[in-house]
Task: structure prediction
Amino acid sequence: MAVVIRLTRKGAKKRPYYHIIVADSRNARDSGNILDTVGKYDPMQTRESGKRVLLLDDKVKAWLAKGARPSDRVYKFLANAGLVNARAVPVQTKQHLPSEKTLLRIKDKESKLEKAREAAAEAAKETAVSDPEPVVEAPVETPAPEVVAEPVAETPVEEPAAE
Result:
């Protein structure tokens, strides 16, 4: 018989409340076939609240000495309480990460985009090297010298003599 320390759900709909129990690992979570109740967990309380996790340290230590194995969540509670080694806390699952197939698709798409960028850059480079456009300089306009017009004095025009 494998003995485990785990949570069993109590409370109402959308108002969970858990008992930390010791039971046979072959029994269902809420079967009622428990060996001992060693604590309570109320997830509705704030993280800083002392009422969130309540453990009976003597009972927990006794069951751990008898070989009971805590579930991952209960192990974290025990580590926070200092009852077990905190460094051996189980690693979180990777369910939040994309699947291997999705990662391959993303990698393939990125490589195709990279190849397209390289091809475009190379094409731009070839057109720049093979067809150097002649540089046409704009003609520099030199300012015309200013012509200052002098006032012309009026001279009397001689009229031809009448014969």
